Amino acid sequence: MVTIMRILLGILFVAHGISKFQMGLGNAAGWFGSIGLPEFAAYVVAYLELIGGIALIIGFATRYFAIGFMVMLVGAIVTVKLPVGLLGNAQMAGYELDLALLVMAGYFAIADERGMGLDRLLFKTKTQ
């Protein structure tokens, strides 16, 4: 079950990363700037979502990418989503999805068991 959860989390982040690339990173950067965030953050977020999502899917550096996602999600909640509330409003979604993804990423940041993936194959411990 943990492997399915990790792969699903990765797929969701890859989808969000791809959407930023499809809209154009310049457009995503412009949107970040329009809400008062540094425009370069859009590039960081897009690449983190895409590369980190792929890493989660294959189970590589799971803990480190999960920590990166946690930082990104807390930033998104605090800077963008918190003012519109848990469920959002007519203009923007709330932070319910971000909160669920944050909890999932938190699990992978602290869990010793990350399921089947490259982490397990490359970094076997004597207890496994």
UniProtKB/TrEMBL annotation:
Pfam families: DoxX
Localization annotation: Cell membrane
Membrane-spanning parts: 40-58, 65-86, 92-110
Keyword Transcription recorded: no
Record's bilayer topology term: Multi-pass membrane protein
Keywords, in A-Z order: Cell membrane, Membrane, Transmembrane, Transmembrane helix
InterPro entries assigned: DoxX (IPR032808), DoxX-like_oxidoreductase (IPR051907)
Annotated family: Belongs to the DoxX family.
Protein name: DoxX family protein
Organism the protein comes from: Paenibacillus baimaensis
